[in-house]
Records
---
Amino acid sequence: MPRVSLPSPALNRRRFLATAAGGLIAPALAGCGSLTSGYEPDGLVLHSQLGGSTPGAPAFAAAVDTFRKRNPRTPVKVLSNADDLQQVYETSKLAGKEADIVLVNLYDKSLAWTEVGATVPVNGHMKRWGLHERVLQGPLREWTDGKGRLRGFPYLRTNWPVAFNTTLLERAGVDGVPTTVDQLLTAAKKLRRKGISPVTIGGNDWSGQKLLLQVMQTYMRPAEAKEVMRTGDFSGSRGARRGLELFVELRKGGVFADSAQGLTSDLMTTQVSTQKAAIASMLSSAMGKVPRSAAEHITVGGWPVPDDAVYERPTIMRANASLGMWISPNGEEKIDRVERFIRFMYSEEIVSRFVHGGRDMALRTDQFSTEYPLVAAGQKLTSDDVSECVTPDVYVPAAATQPLIQATGVAFSPGSDARKVRTALEKAYRSAGA
Amino acid sequence: MKRIRLSWLPAHVLAWGYAALLLIPVYYFLASAFKDNGAIFSSPLGLPTSLSPDNFTRAFDLGGLGNAVTNSALVTVGGLAVTLFLALPASFALARSTGRAARVMERAFSLGFLVPTFAALFPTFLLAAATGLFHTRTFMVLLLPATAMPLSVVLLTQFMRTVPPELEEAARMDGAGTLAVLRHIYAPISMPGIAAVVLLNFLNFWNEYLYSLIIIGPDPDQRTTQLALPTLVSTSGTDYGVLTAATVLTLLPVYVVYTVLQRRMQAALVSGAVKM
């Protein structure tokens, strides 16, 4: 019969180890500071998308540090998320634990925040604090909803020019940057012959959706384009139908990179940075990530248009509704501290940091980035160089944003004709109840 | 002899081929941690030109991995402790009981497998908010064992059923109480099962993302590695060298734990008790 060993030195050792482990874990979990998320009732909680490796993150971190030094009695807690910020903020709001100020794009879910009370309109604060004059008219217009409510304090904006790698174009025997559709089609053929991807694009995400809608606008005036984006009535607009036919013609002409329907914006930037592709329609913030070794071969311009387009020059988009500062209901209760922080962020000193950190601002400033030449080049494009078409972000209904992005993949997939693309886009709107 | 070797050739080819299939991605992953984007995309399988730790230090700084690994360790170890604390006595009781109530209870635990993870998300969120534990790791330490109980209890119950009742009878005659029987008879004999439960739950707890995202939220002081890693992904251009370096760092604890427990786990798998 096996002997049952009751308490022994070995067991004492085990007990000791268990006690020691418990002794280490319990205080760490139960310690007041580490148990809760650190919300400061007397401080300020910021929830920002400007973290990790996002362009502008170092400028934001430095700005917060400076604010802390100048306001030692206001503890500042910075929470951060990447693309999942909107979802996390919404659940925090449901639990009543949302941050005081949210720094996130006006896009997708956030389009509905003011309407549902997730954030508060800031018209009154903007006026009282005298910050109106600091903001550019374009961003101010786009941050104002259909009911005249200013949804947040506009902060960043984004240029959306087209990057052309002139060295790769020259290697393929293309003279100059293509500015017409015919030149683009010819360039694509020559580039392919040399094994170079012509236009890289994230056909699987929002970057592909932007380019699709940009090309679709070729035959639509801005007012018509806005209406189509709001309603999703692509069939009802002759301009939209012709634009989609042009898009399919470009795809069939080999303009877009192989398997573009599976690429993302992230991979697009990588292909530009590694000089695998010659052309890309890129966010200026993404251009800030292109290494100097590649950037010195790149010039910026607009998307080529045909002779009968409604736009005279190659088109670009300027996303006025990029990142802004939203005030939450919790923030409204400590509005004096919120005011101090927003005034600080709007100061020329901090704006300058962001400009030199490679970001485009929604605020008035006469500075240009010296560290990021492609970003600066995008800022300097004028109406003599390019025509500005409509950026869809604030016109596509929030509920239709994601379905529309998913439908975009159809447009980049080989074998889809214009009718199929149109049907997929309209279905996306219908599925969203838009 | 030669014929025997030849007959084994297909098996060797398949085994080595399978090993290569597993090793090539691991190599690609490790090599990428020492490269920049240019090198990763121009020569994906090439050796790194330097073994500079830059990507690792940048990953540590940008992703706040110091805090994240600590938080993951706290949540995982805390969750495992609670799981074992609850599952061991429950399995012990179920293994020794023969009545109808025990059978019903055991089936009730098995029903836990049928609850889809996503379906429980919203009620869990409401519970976290109602208990005041929303945006805390503590809630995760309490929640994760709840998700692990079905597997843990069912597995351990099967193990404990293999313990001969004579051992308990002998212990009782020596004056052992119920707790002593659990500690000195059932627990040591069920050690392979306990190791399997610990390993499987460790992997689940360490890699948990969805609930951590919603419950723990955005606080860098609280978030786990699975929440910290996505902050290194940027829609405007990810530095894949830094991202893979960060992933390597967060996988190291998993590798260490697996290495330590793998023998016990294998013993559990071949012992028959886990073949349900």
---
Amino acid sequence: MKRRSFLKGTVASSMLGVAAGAGLLTPQSVLAAWPKAAFEAKSVDGGMEAALGSSDVIESGDIKIKAPDIAENGAVVPITISTGMSGVESIAIFIEKNPIPLASSYDLGPTTQGFISCRVKMGKTSDLIAVVKSGGKLYSAKKMIKVTIGGCGG
Amino acid sequence: MNISRREFLQMLAVASAAGVTLPGQAASKGNIAPNQMYELPAFGNVSFLHFTDCHAQLMPIWFREPNINIGVGNMKGNPPHLVGKNFLKHYGIAPNTPEAYAFTYLNFVEASRQYGKVGGFAHLATLVKHLRAQRPGSLLLDGGDTWQGSATALWTNGQDMVDATKLLGVDVMTGHWEFTYGAERVNEIIENDLEGHMDFVAQNVIDNQWEEGVFKPYVIKEMNGIPTAIIGQAFPYTPIANPRWMIPEWSFGIREDKMQDTVDAAREAGAQVVVVLSHNGMDVDLKMASRVRGIDAILGGHTHDAVPEPVKVKNAGGTTLVINSGSNGKFLSVLDFDVKNGKVRDFRYRLLPIFSNFIEPDVEMSEFISDVRKPYIKRLNEQLGVADEVLYRRGNFNGTFDQLILDAMLDVQEADIAFSPGFRWGVSVMPGEPITFEHVMTQTAITYPTATLNEVSGEQIKVILEDVADNLFNEDPYYQQGGDMVRVGGLKYSIDPLAKIGKRITDMELNGKPLDARKNYRLAGWASMEKREGTPIWDVVAEYIRAQDTVRIKELNIPKIKGLGDNPGLAEV
């Protein structure tokens, strides 16, 4: 099985996400077709257009973001995105205030549940935007994650 | 007649219920607790006693409550963000009473002389025994911040407090500062000391690698035939507010979803009463109570708020009582539930201030405390100097004891600016009372005490102040960390608590000149998040006080508070 078809299939995407986020696999080594423009775009809209073909998103209540309110370590922020939508084609994660907002994008196969879990790096306090592609349309949800200097508690 | 201790206590309880004062007090001191405040007739069939954030204060102490405790957003003017006269008015407490002394800063020095010290484990022990005798089967809950805050706790690696809480009869605890002894020590205490005596619970601590729970999330205890669940909620931001390297493999967080799952699991396991023993801080407790279903009460701590009545919070599952029980051993909560047909029907609640003069100390606990202190007594009692005004810490901005610490840092470390953490623990010292080394340790006894000196740009100083201010004044409690504003020496500034991060701090001035964003300044600090070797802060402070006969606080450096208008959490003194 080729790497690309593995990714396109019923993927254990959470494991892959962890591996990629931890720097074990660079996205380049994972993806056969490296979406260069998407990972160079300096804005959320630019990143969406390059990665997903459009920045026209509909806010959805059916996307759940599980992430800390305040990150314990901005270098590795554990997040989980899940949705009850059917026919999920892809899930992408953007960190609005990162120099390059697109953190990762996952293509899911037709029998895959809309669920990914990974760790992202955040330079500072920012909204995390999850974009789910389903039935050719883009749906999004966001959550603020605070990155703080810390100390002085209690 | 040969009666057992238990029978003796039960007899005392009967005697107390008949209007007699607590064991021994009338005979030896002639002090009778005012308004019969310790006479609480038992109610219902499920009872909890709760204390929290005692910060290892085994001895009776002075403790001044804050005159600044600002609430922002929808927290404005609501408990716990009420101080002084606004507090008394809200709860219908008459001024110049023991209760006014316990709950507010008003008239503090004079009231202290009148009503005496508060807290002390020997006094707490007497009260616990008295209340438990009336409430057979009741549980004693400890909300954490118990193993840290005193010299003896630090020097015994938390052991004195572990032994004291076992002797006191604590059934269940959770934690925060406990974790600053490091993961290994916490595990060692749980395995060697607590096993078979006390449950350490925390649903919101998981290991980084497998995301499995580190501690028991909850325990079910049967009380008078009624299964009761106690769920633990450790301080959610421990690895952020305290050094991460001490607990590198543990992840915390609020974990609201997991809390709901845990409540559901406890109910499914047969619990008819579910309470959360929380170290969230009160604002976080209130938000959590509005969103999680099925909790009868949250017994909370961390923000050191002594709140005389429960806040009844509505949620999709019904109503949750939110209780916060103060700090430094000053208070004991008594929560009685009447449970019938598997449900809580009614409750009674009292937050009892512990007036050391009105309660005879427990003999066994007194002896224990005296033994703990014996090897260290000379060092503890060293008189460093005398202050000409009351020294205290608690409040959103600098207290006088903080100012003393800052003055010491500026002087001893020859710094331009000094930062001292906005901790909420630390006892008060009366004017004219000798400042002992023990007093200094109640303000500084931590496992990462190194005094630091760094070259830091004006821009970075602004970023730090903004960051800490947002942890205190963010209008969403889930983004707050508890703790007060970092204490600042040398630098003057203005703060607008209602502004957003980046816009709160203005008018920064050093020696009458605006702070230069690009210039570097010598910044003294302590309690660094990184490992640092060097002189501990208590030596810096002690050296400074020893060099003077009478310590004078030249100026209490409180920032100019802007844009707030009339706020019931702010009182001029």
---
Amino acid sequence: MKACARLSVECDSRGDSVVRELRSASPLTLMPRPAARTGGKHAVVHLVGSMTAPLGGDELDLRIRVGAGARLLLRGIAATLALPGHHPGGSRSSVHVEVDDGGTLEYLPEHTVLTRRAEHRAELRVELGARARMRCREILVLGRSGEVPGSLRTSTHVTRQGTPLLRQTLDPGDARRRASAGHLASARVVANEPMMWGSDPPAPVSGDWWSLVPLAAGGSVASAVAADAVTARRRLAEAVRGHPDGTELAKEHW
Amino acid sequence: MTTSGRLAMLALADARFPGGGHVHSGGLEEATHRGVVTRPEELREFLFGRLHGTGELAAVFAAAATHSAAGGAGRQYWLRFDAELDARTPSPAQRDASRAQGRGTARAGRVAWPSSALDELLAATARPHHATVLGVLLGGSGNGTPRDAAAVAAYLALSGSASAAVRLLGLDPFAANAAVTELGPELDRVAERAADTVGDDPADLPAPSAPALDLLAEAHQRHHREEVRLFAS
Amino acid sequence: MRAEHDHGHNHPVNFDPTVAEPDPFEPASAGDRPLRIGLGGPVGSGKTALTAALCRTLGAEIELGVVTNDIYTTEDADFLIKAGVLDADRIEAVQTGACPHTAIRDDITANLDAVERLQQRHPGVRLVLVESGGDNLTAVFSRGLADAQVFVVDVAGGDKVPRKGGPGVTTADLLVINKIDLAERVGADMEVMLSDAHRMRGELPVIAQSLTDTPRAPEVAAWVRQRLAAGAPAR
């Protein structure tokens, strides 16, 4: 199955963030919340997985644009289960994001669970304009409890006006690599949240298997690993709270 | 390859090369404090994971730098190259460790293998990343191929940690050495893959990561402030 | 790399006028960088106490900084800070990877970086004292790191130490025999120590001192002043 969904949010003449384009493509169903309930200053859209996906052979593409000065919260509703399918070549999902000058995006999907024999490739590309802000959460669960996960390659690219801020690919590989203290240290859950959010932490903050680090060219990343999703989320939240705007970011205020 | 070329590669990989590598454990010191590496087998597994994240990234950039240095890359290119490697190194502790070794290697390498390519790189940044310097020293002097540079970078990602394990844990040096050499076929594959990407634009080069190792690197710095760590990384 | 800095080649000249950054490895002309004096010697011989004494005596005359290689990095720095002889930002601690002799001799990168950091913070610094971690009698400073070096032994270590020789005792630019006030109590024969030291060292100077009796280390300070007057060698 191939699907391409689109979402575009812009600032109208009153300064409200309005959804200009919204094109769902099953299984990527986009459900906007009525402006009356959000107050209009920001748009809230829920991403609902409307079928069992991604399956092997699926190619899912989501394109998001946040116009100058606009604000969008895109939130996931349920965990995504990456499953093997009947088609060869594994499943692919890509999310392309553009945030224009002064725009804000919060992209907070639920976790992705990599099941046995799944072959999943995921890519997130974010291009930021001047003073644009964004946070994107990624929580990967490598197999359900007791399950040996399939294969995964997930890449994140964040650039601002052409300058690379963050590029990283996670390929947890085989059991040996996952078990290595020099790689994943037997973690089953890997959580990451790049935050290009105005101010950055002046110095790294870290704790037991989590950290919040300033990036070289601006922005920061909160990250955590854990044996289970609850612990990973708790550690990630702790890292996010270390941000200068941590109180605001930890609240998930919208 | 010329005879001097082989020597340059050997000298850069030598633990006696005075480029500052001996004060970096690459996360091993922190791993020993957590008790996750105590025996030679655990060291070998630590190194395996290190090779496939940090080692592979270093190999990719060392290979690409060799290629670009041989092709006469200028200051603007090296600025972009540097930014791309920074973007792939989210942990400030790892960036610092890489740049400290890069500067040390450049300091020593400049005396041994001066080249206009190295001057171009240092004009772009006084503290280049370690992998970049390794590549430029080999490529800029015509003394090595991208694959050589990749192999040296990947090997150095292992040998420093192995040496630290001997010093910190008193491991049997023969066992620690074997833990490195057992990864020979793995290292060859990493170097080969790295050499395959050399023509790519720096933005498109692979970006392998190792989340747990990044966290160990940050924890090392935090613990150094709280108690004492003998190694700089 | 050759140990001496009068290396026999020319660095390539960069003609690019847009290169604004100073060449990172091209120190300014002779005498324009601080003199680097290494202080080495066995554990407990009084290196840090001597460093503190020199800071106290010379600190008023000249801008100085200290690089410490102590195995437990902050220990010596804390001592100097608490002794009130030096501000914390004039002290750099080096992590030696559990190999203090390597860091001052075989691979001096971490120490050179520390000196550079001091210079960046204090461009006017004229003297850097590099204190080694306590090591054995074979540990000496590379000439690439220290322009001159002092080897510190003490009478409590036994009066046989100078006779045992080793590169520290025989080749250091200055040998200091510390804690001579304790000689009687530990049964050390000062005459033997001094004559052995001179026999092993030929013309090279030896100073016997007690920081209890002369807490400002006047003789060693005078030797450092001479070195300063001679200037730092060109690189």
